[in-house]
Amino acid sequence: MRNAEPGISCPGCPHRAAYVVVKDAVGRGRGRVFCGNAGCRIVGAMHPAATTCPGGEQAILPRYRQAVPDGTAPAAKVCAHFIPAEDLLAADAPDTFSQLSQEGACVLLCVLASSARFLDSAAIEQLKGCAERLSVRSATVLDPFDTLASTEFIHGLLEAPGVHVLIFASPCAQLLHGRSPEPVEIDRLGCQGCHRCKQLTGCPALVFAPPAYTVDAEACAGCDLCADYCRTRVIMTPRARMTPAERREARIRIAQERR
Ligand code: SF4
Ligand code: SF4
After folding, report:
1. Pick the CATH number of 14-174 from 1.10.150, 3.40.50, 3.30.1300, 3.40.1350
2. Does the chain have fewer CB atoms within 10 Å around its N or its C terminus?
3. Which H or E element spans position 131?
4. What interhelical angle do 147-157 and 14-26 show, nearest 10?
5. What is the rounded distance in angstroms from the CA atom of residue 82 to the CA atom of residue 17?
6. pLDDT, tens digit (0-9, with 9 covering 90-100), for 26-40
7. By C-alpha distance, which of 207, 233, 217, 230 is closest to 185?
8. What CATH number should be reported for the domain whose range is 176-258?
9. Distance 94 CA to ligand 1 centre (A)
């Protein structure tokens, strides 16, 4: 198989948002292992949080490659797996994920629910039911674009050993295509050119035009992920007055209207 080139993931990709929020919440350092089998090879290639995975191994940049704990190596402090929701639905047998608890003191099974079927809240509940039937300590639905709430929640889990299922539910950017929320704007005079927004999110709509960043308004999907991670707060969003729940409802409404 040809090695996949490091790719360009879609602006507004909820998979990438989930990687970003988990990686930021878990932090760097020894004993942190990330495994990606999100079914989206390009995201795996793009994001440094992703390391080895059965589905996307060819796509992973070598510098991020790490061995997935196999029960013989010392357990990691934190191990985060990223899988597509369809894998969880298909694996409705309790022993499918039975090895997870050996992989770390705290194991996060991050389930990415972004396809059209998960625009329906009943499908999300079904997914949660599948998770609860596994021998896991908790199963929770999160919005990957509600970075503050998700980060705080994950911080709490790191103090609670065991396997936790995190269902990251938000429509795939492709479902919004052509009907995206309004783009963000960057105050170029205030931008410090620190690259944090680009390095963390990898979003192709963020363009470095020295000495500062700008946004490709045609490409921006208005997900606001970059705005959340700019420490100098120079990325301005038209949705500043909306709550995370309102933003999520707007994304789902657009995706439903396009069906
Ligand atoms: S994180 Fe903010 S200050 Fe840093 S480069 Fe991006 S927009 Fe500029
Ligand atoms: S809001 Fe930021 S991260 Fe989201 S698509 Fe636009 S430029 Fe990319």
Report:
1. 3.40.50
2. N
3. helix 121-133
4. 50
5. 12
6. 876 555 666 655 555
7. 217
8. 3.30.70.20
9. 45
- Check if 104 has its Cβ closer than 6 Å to any atom of ligand 2: no
- Tell me which DSSP letter residue 247 carries: H
And the tokens for 257? 């209207």
Say which DSSP state 108 is in.
E
Ligand 2: which atom is nearest the Cα of residue 180? 5
Ligand nearest to the CA of 223: 2
Domain ranges of the chain: 14-174, 176-258
Q: What is the DSSP string of 167-225?
A: EEE---GGGGTT-PPPPPEE-TTT-----HHHHHH--TTEEEETTEEEE-TTT-----H
What does pTM read for this prediction?
Answer: 0.84
Atom of ligand 2 nearest to the CA of 184: 1
Q: What pLDDT does residue 91 have?
A: 63
Same fold for the pair 14-174 and 176-258: no
If one residue of 185, 235, 236, 237 were mutated to test the ligand 1 pocket, choosing by the most ligand atoms within 8 A of its CB, it would be 235
